[in-house]
Amino acid sequence: MITHAVIFAPIGQASRSDQIVQRLSNAIITGLLEANEQLPNEADLAKMMGVSHITIREALNTLRANHLIHTVRGRNGGSFVCEQAWELSPTLNPFKTLSTDYLSDLGEMHCAIISHSTRLASRRMTQGDITRLRDFVAVLNSATSPETRTQADMRCLLAIAAASQSARLANQELILQSEWSSLVAILFRSDIIHREIVALYTTLIDTLAAHNESESVNSAQKLIDTFTFYLIENKLKYNAK
Question: How many angstroms separate the first and last alpha carbons of the chain?
């Protein structure tokens, strides 16, 4: 699944255990990793996320201490997402530790990646690429849960990055999604935001289909700027509680 490819993507260099805890906590709290879902084993996690077994074990111990996962011993055992993880969301909400400056910077980085991907895609997308993207947006439009909406959104953004035919841009989008997706899942609890995002995607596709480079870039910027606006708005609402 593309969601898992993002969640378990390689980790950066600094504070690796903390990064793993933050990424998996966000994925669990926002429902991208579902209740009772089994995580990959320690060896597979270490390989997938590019860290040592000790780092993985340390992160899993922290997640267990936070009651986000539990471990079952035996032949069919492993680490599983706790059923009550959603109840802990007020204390472990991603907006608790993220600043508005961080969210603004994340949005600017994402805007840069998607805007340039769109610029190249407007020149290089085939009719098949356009049809595929329309299909992804149709899935997003019909999705009813925050999790399925987020997964559909991820496919749309990764499809745009892939259509740029730049492996570096597509890889950067994949890496950024590990931070972006768990935050967007919170936004997609709102039907109003969901409808607004679908409308923005529809406009973007129309400009891409017309191979209108400047309008495509403008539409892409508006899409990511809208996401960023709502992320910061949610952070401010969280602070006001």
Answer: 36
Residue 78's domain comprises 2-92
- Judge if 131 and 231 occupy the same domain: yes
Residue 136 to residue 132: CA distance in whole angstroms: 6
Whole-model pTM? 0.76
Can you say whether residue 50 is alpha, beta or left, with left for phi > 0 and alpha for psi between -120 and 50 degrees? Answer: left
Which tokens in the block code for residue 222? 């508006």
Rounded Cα–Cα distance for residues 183 and 110 (Å):
13
The residue type at 190 = S
Taking residue 210's Cβ as centre, other Cβ atoms within 10 Å add up to 12
Same domain, 57 and 132: no
Tell me, what's the pLDDT at 67?
Answer: 86
What is the radius of gyration, based on Cα positions, of the chain? Answer: 18
Residues 82 and 107 occupy one common structural domain? no
Q: Find how far residue 63's CA is from the centre of its chain.
A: 20
- Kindly report the CATH number assigned to the domain that includes residue 108: 1.20.120.530
Q: Based on the domain organization, do 209 and 219 belong to the same domain?
A: yes
Confidence of residue 8 (pLDDT cuts 50, 70, 90): confident
| Sign of the Cα pseudo-torsion (44, 57, 12, 68, in order) | positive
Residues 234 and 143 in one domain: yes
